[in-house]
Write a structure and sequence with these properties.
The protein contains 17 helices and 11 strands. By secondary structure, the chain is α/β, with parallel strands linked by helices. α9 runs antiparallel to α10, α9 crosses α12 and α14 packs across α17.
Length: about 400
């Protein structure tokens, strides 16, 4: 009698490759009627008829450019043979407020439904990285994906978050807990938006350039060193060069790193971010993302130095540059509850949250020299605590000198 209890299961093996391609454009004054860039993007596909478009605008950008809504409407009217503007640009709060409030996603989904935005339509997000994350998330989950165009308006969004393939919102009080991988149709970096940035937002984006320079390109690190005074004086050419080179390094990693949708645990572009994400949450988002990343970088290079990976002269060089760029190395949240014997109420909880976010093995990027990153899979909590105390002591000595 044949034993059928352990019959071999049949399986159909499925494999396919999906090709993604998008361009990052560098322009200015893109809503001037005689600038054809956006019009050409919307008319680039071989589809008959007009393309429905829904614009979502960061309220902070609106306040800095109060005529922008009218300019967008006028631009779409002038190119109405291509663009079917469904309603005036929708205003949403800027900054992390846009990612902390799921009702904004719900609101955008209702607008998408009401105005008949379909898979062949376009959603155009205009704003900082947080707004673009939220808008991209809503665009991706509506109809299983609507084409979205990003128009980043901050240094950080133009050189980092706005040019990648990730969309997300914060949930359960955790950074980027809900999200998707969905490449934009295109990214337009309009340098004219940078002129009205608050000094903190102008500076904050430099930390992401420093991050990618430290793990990938010593020459870029030296360029940042050489241009500190130019950034401080808001010299546009220096900042445009920084944004362009940082964007190139990020895009090269996404396309050439072999893991564009981050299915593996290694996340080199998250250097300094395990602590940064936790600091943002602990400070109730008082800290800008770039400011938190600068502290996270300082912490991880200090840990790398104390653990014997990073030579002292390189560590000092990096710490000095972070300070020269105008960033703080320490905030009270960094050492909050650090000595109470429990990770749960301290920055160290960010290590486990980061591992959970990775979805597997802990993998944190450190550096052993400027321009070269490497992955470690364990963190010595005693040594990390010592690193925090080192930054605190350094901060206190600086404060004493200023008194």
């Amino acid at each position: 009698m044949q034993d059928t209890k352990h019959k071999k299961m049949k399986a159909i093996s499925q494999e396919f490759t999906a090709k993604f391609q998008y361009d990052v454009f560098f322009s200015q004054n893109i809503f001037q009627i005689d600038n054809p860039l956006l019009r050409d993007l919307l008319s680039s596909e071989n589809t008959e008829g007009k393309r429905k478009a829904l614009f979502v605008l960061d309220n902070g950008v609106h306040e800095a450019h109060p005529d922008l809504q009218k300019q967008i409407v006028a631009y779409c009217f002038a190119h109405s043979d291509v663009i079917d503007l469904r309603t005036v640009p929708i205003l949403v709060p800027g900054g992390e407020k846009s990612k902390n409030d799921y009702s904004l996603v719900d609101y955008l989904l209702k607008e998408i439904d009401e105005f008949g935005i379909c898979r062949h339509s376009y959603i155009v997000g205009i704003g900082g990285g947080a707004v673009l994350d939220m808008v991209g998330f809503a665009a991706t989950i509506a109809h299983r994906g609507i084409r979205h165009i990003r128009i980043p308006t901050t240094v950080l969004a133009q050189n980092d978050s706005g040019v990648g393939v990730k969309n997300s919102i914060n949930f359960f009080n955790k950074k980027n807990f809900l999200g998707t991988f969905s490449p934009p149709q295109a990214v337009i970096n309009d340098v004219s938006f940078l002129s009205t940035l608050h000094p903190r937002d102008w500076r904050a984006g430099i930390s992401e350039a420093l991050k990618v320079a430290l793990i990938k390109d010593e020459g870029f690190f030296r360029e940042i060193q050489a241009n500190v005074s130019n950034y401080e004086q808001r010299e546009s050419h220096a900042m445009e060069s920084l944004i362009y080179k940082c964007a190139v390094l990020h895009l090269n990693h996404i396309s050439g790193g072999g893991d564009p949708f981050e299915r593996d645990s290694a996340r080199p572009l998250d250097f300094g971010h395990w602590a940064a994400h936790k600091l943002e949450q602990m400070s109730n988002y008082r800290l800008r993302h770039g400011e938190a990343v600068a502290i996270g970088i300082a912490l991880d290079v200090t840990y790398a130095h104390l653990s014997g990976l990073l030579p002292e002269d390189a560590w000092k060089e990096i710490i000095v540059l972070i300070e020269e760029l105008g960033f703080r190395l320490y905030v009270p949240e960094l050492s909050q509850n650090i000595d109470n014997g429990s990770d749960s109420d301290s920055i160290l909880a960010g290590i486990e949250e980061f591992r959970e976010h990775l979805g597997g093995q802990l993998s944190i990027t450190l550096i052993d020299r400027i321009g070269h990153g490497l992955e470690v899979h364990e963190i010595d909590r005693r040594l990390m605590t010592q690193s925090i105390h080192t930054l605190k002591a350094h901060h206190e000595s600086l404060m004493a000198l200023e008194e």
